[in-house]
Amino acid sequence: MAWAGAGRPGSATFIPLAIGFIVAVGWLVISLLITFPSAVYLSKWSSCGHQPVQVSNFAAADSYSLPGDPGYGPGFLSGYVCTEDEAIRNGYHRLK
User: Fold this and answer.
1) Tens of pLDDT, residues 52-73
2) DSSP 94
3) In angstroms, rounded to a whole number, what is the distance separating the alpha carbons of residues 88 and 64?
4) Residues with Cβ within 8 Å of residue 19, at least 6 apart in sequence
């Protein structure tokens, strides 16, 4: 029964297991933060059939960007609509 206490608080293997768990959870959180904006962007691209118009409410700017504009691309604070007309109807103005 040499392994009966392995992984329990106070055992010699508890600290390495706890550190490994913390590292694994940290890696998962970071990877989700990196991939989530791209997943939302690609999902909208797929549903529109073309690159979507990027909209943002950041700092109450209510602005939109078209593909090819500086700063266009997946982001944490971005939303997406299919057309420029849809962005204008929803009250967004174009960033220039």
Assistant:
1) 999 988 777 889 999 999 988 8
2) E
3) 9
4) none
pTM of the model: 0.63
**Sequence ranges of the domains in the chain:** 14-94
The three-state DSSP-derived secondary structure of 20-32 is: HHHHHHHHHHHHH
CA atoms within 13 A on the CB side of 17: 10
- What is the C-alpha separation between 56 and 36, in angstroms, rounded? 17
- The DSSP letter of residue 50 is S
Pairing of strands 93-94, 63-65: parallel
Number of C-beta neighbours around residue 5 at 10 A = 13
